[in-house]
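Study this pair:
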Amino acid sequence: YAATRIDVEIVRLPPALQSGWFIPHVVTYFISYAALSLSALAAAFYLVAARFKGRLGADSVLEPALSFAHASMTSGFVLLTFGLAMGAVWGKMAWGDYWSWDPKENWALITWLVYLTITHLRYFAGWHGRRYAWLSVAGFGVVMFTYLGVHLLPTSADSLHVYQ
């Protein structure tokens, strides 16, 4: 359908979006968000299955679900780290600074800190099972706010990440 539609007006991308870092940064973030969403889904499945423990063979799916949630969260966190680093390099090339304290950048950092905290709680405080599953679900809530809700903040009108 798109190939049959002729653009009446050719729109040039803003200079910031013409950087070679833009696409890898965005793709890495999308893949990390996908991995973190799988982690939250597996954790939610674990929480539901734990409610029916002992019935319908739910015991056999608890540990694999939590293991998958952890593996997916670990992958998502690593990709989130790479996406944040690429965003900083892109910011330096596009705007002259690695970090501009933009609302979207701040919430990306908050998301990263949330998953850093969850990872530390798992490894150093021994949070497993239900607590870890709830953290995974809550962490994904922060991801969703970062992706979909930041534009609702009053300060987002002046954001470098709003293109119109």
User: Anything to note?
Assistant: The mean pLDDT is 84. The first helix runs from residue 22 to 51.
